[in-house]
Amino acid sequence: MVFSLLTKIFGSNNDRQIKKIMPLVEQINALEDGMKALTDEEMAAKTLEFRARLSKGKNPESSESLDDLLPEAFAIVREAAVRTLGMRHYDVQLIGGIALHRGMISEMKTGEGKTLMSTLPAYLNALSGRGVHVVTVNDYLAKRDAEWMDAIYSFLGLRVGVIIHNLNDAQRREAYSADITYGTNNEFGFDYLRDNMKFDRESLAQGELNFAIVDEVDSILIDEARTPLIISGPAEKSTHMYHQVNTIIPSFVAETDYSIDEEAKSVTLTEEGVAKGEKLLGVENLYDPKNIETLHHLNQALKAHTLFKRDVDYIVKNDEVVIVDEFTGRLMEGRRYSEGLHQALEAKENVKIANENQTLASITFQNYFRMYEKLSGMTGTAETEAAEFKKIYNLDVLVIPTHKPMIRKDMPDVIYKTKKEKYEAAIKEIIRLHKKGQPVLVGTISIDVSEDLSRQLEKRNIKHTVLNAKHHKAEAEIVAAAGQKGAVTISTNMAGRGTDIVLGEGVKELGGLHILGTSRHESRRIDNQLRGRSGRQGDEGSSRFYLSLEDDLLRIFGGERISSIMDRLGIDEGEPIEHNLISRAIENAQSKVEGHNFEIRKQLIEYDDVMNQQREVIYRQRRQALTEENLKDEFLQMIEERCWDILEIFEDEKLPVPDWDIEGLCDTFNRQFNCTLQPSDFDREDIDGEKAGRIMVDKALEKYVEKETLIGDAEFRQLEKYVMLQTVDSLWKDHLLNMDHLKEGIGLRSYAQQNPLVIYKKEGFEMFQGLIDRIREQTLNILFRIQIVNPDDLNQIRKPKNEKLTLSHSDSSAPREPVKRTEAKTGRNDPCPCGSGKKYKKCCGA
């Protein structure tokens, strides 16, 4: 109450932020008449003028910053929009554009013109010549927005590129070289990974990550943050086990052989289930290490049959299992669940089982977008997740006022006891509004519900259209027509995000577009997105949600409490209830789920931060090998380090050098460097450890120079580069698998009173140190043995293997049951994994 009173007196923090921005808006408005007086040619010349002012000489004091140019740049874009598109940026769009330029999230209601708003900061930041990426949720919107806004950019002398599916490398390079590049979050992320798998710098596409404007930022950075982007290649595994395990699943009984936790979306075998699995699969102990793959197949098959529903989580199309995005309802063509889950679904649906894949590269959206020097976003619904945006991305949310007052009527939810009663009531309301002529957009949470409602309306001869993942091709046309008189549109959560629903003639007088939600989503944002389709730009509109106690959200997270309230009130069958207690209980249920999902995302990023540090080291090393002409200094350093590593294995500070295992040392050295080091080389009276090491280094360098002379300097430099790249890629792939296995079993460490994340960091560090050692060892091993008989052989080495790559999202991020993994060795001169800062040999390895 006190807080509410203070807000009324002093205004909210959001109000104060907007008040600070208003003087800039006034400056932009004051320049409008001057911009109108310019000719088209004079306006286009302004871009060259701004760029010259940004880099005026080499004296930083004489050049201007982007902030200095903002008022003029925004004013010139506004005038260009008027001349090319007949659209003028409102003051609220100027406020939103300033927030984007400052690296914030602009929350702007649907229909307020986010696409046009983004041209302001995109143009300003493109003046630096370092590129601007505008990120959208699908190819259609990326292409539409790029073509639409290109009129403004080309008028001002800037070039626009588009990154969509199925472009080749040359087309991608061309698009990224543009001043402003539009594309989807998936394509930007996958291009980053693909660039870090290339074998020559000419084929690199993406360039630097300077400034990103993320449209529908909540969908991309929150909803999709739980599923990492993965590039994988085929693994040599048989698909027979998927068929075998699938045949036994129908005999498993719920609550007897397995238990389902719907809140956590997990399924667990009981002791009875384990015993049944062992009997049916003919194994003695499923938890024996040799049967761990069988156990994994069984768990994935169980998950496929119990947690994943056809026409909700996936559809079967052209004899393929295609994933349905749970947040947008769109088909995720080409995406596959990882770790055998997709194969388990293929076995369940009796379609061809594709070979399993092995991860070659992966990254989360969280870590990809945090690599941009400046990040901003825009959406109609971000305020409910403001804390998460700040904590994970350091992004503040600014709620932008609407150009015209919002007059949409959001009516209280109506709740029924059963789903049957709820849908009957919803259909009656649709028929009533249809007869009246008021357009209705019906929101559903899955494909099967949308199709069931469609069948019910067909029986009653109600003309309508359906928008879901099965009928997505005409999405823009369906959504655009949804505001016409008498229109009935049934939609999943995709609901045409990014496409305005314009009201037809006479509709405003009927009450505008009515939104009828048939279920509450787990997230309040998704509900707000659905509501936001109505009431754009001060239009008339209304919304109401129809719920039942059998809905998953209420049943899992608050059904008993709500049910007891309804019983006390004596609600009859078919009779709805509207009550503040119920509304609060629903909000509490949604808050609980949002909190649970935030914890999952937070855990994902905590674990992926470990991988991200390792990824940055490997990709930096790889990019150096790719872009530098000469790696000789790096190889000389590697040779010296490897010699001292070998010496360290055999040295004994308590004994003189002749008493060491010199034969073993020579044997190890010769295997590494393909040399002929002899015990007699150490027959010197003054020999000590330092001199022994120098003998080894000199011998290895002598062999290196011999190899270099034999092959030729230029060819040898190329050879070093490609041997390094091939070795790094091969060992990094294996390391990713080992890190996945480590994460799968790490959760069980909590039973030993250990923090799984701390253990994951410690053991992951040890494994990474081992990886670095193996890269050095294997790279030198290949280089010192390779024979080039024909110059054409070098070109063959340069070509990467033509693997069929799969782009996908992982299905899960949480640690799972343990499986075997490869242990890595910490070198004695490496930093100690305990974090003391000392060398391993003088700390835990002493």
Attribute tags:
846 residues, alpha/beta, Rossmann fold, Pre-protein croslinking domain of SecA, 4 domains, seven-stranded parallel β-sheet, 31 helices, 50% helix, disordered N terminus
Description:
It is an enzyme of class 7 (translocase). Belongs to the SecA family. Residues 95-253 form the Helicase ATP-binding domain. By secondary structure, the chain is of the alpha/beta class. 50% of the residues lie in helices and 11% in strands. The chain is built from 31 helices and 21 strands. It has a seven-stranded parallel beta sheet, with helices on both faces. Strands 14, 15, 16, 17, 18, 19 and 20 form a seven-stranded parallel beta sheet that branches. Mean pLDDT is 81; it is low at 1-6, 811-828 and 833-842.
Briefly say what this structure is:
The protein is an alpha/beta fold. The protein folds into four domains: 250 residues, Rossmann fold, CATH 3.40.50; 120 residues, SecA, preprotein cross-linking domain (Pre-protein croslinking domain of SecA), CATH 3.90.1440; 170 residues, 3-Layer(aba) Sandwich (Rossmann fold); 226 residues, Helical scaffold and wing domains of SecA (Orthogonal Bundle). The protein contains 31 helices and 21 strands.
